[in-house]
């Protein structure tokens, strides 16, 4: 089993940076749900570190 562990501050910083990146990209694409994508990424990244965030990110890129 693979385990990825991030310390608290690094986890939150990575989640915030990813959420900001997704929000800005969604706004550039003129998506009405840019804020929801950013929140979804942040929550998934924090609750399921890395894997949850990557899942949301991949799903986002497919849209």
UniProtKB/TrEMBL annotation:
Keyword Membrane: yes
Keyword annotations from UniProtKB, A to Z: Membrane, Transmembrane, Transmembrane helix
Record flagged with keyword Transmembrane: yes
Highest taxon, organism lineage: Archaea
Chain segments annotated as transmembrane: 6-24, 36-61
Protein's recorded name: Cardiolipin synthase N-terminal domain-containing protein
């Amino acid at each position: 089993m693979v385990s990825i562990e991030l310390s608290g501050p690094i986890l939150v910083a990575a989640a915030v940076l990813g959420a900001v990146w997704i929000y800005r990209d969604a706004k550039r694409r003129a998506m009405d749900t840019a804020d929801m994508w950013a929140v979804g990424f942040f929550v998934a990244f924090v609750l399921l570190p890395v894997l949850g965030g990557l899942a949301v990110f991949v799903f986002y890129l497919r849209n």
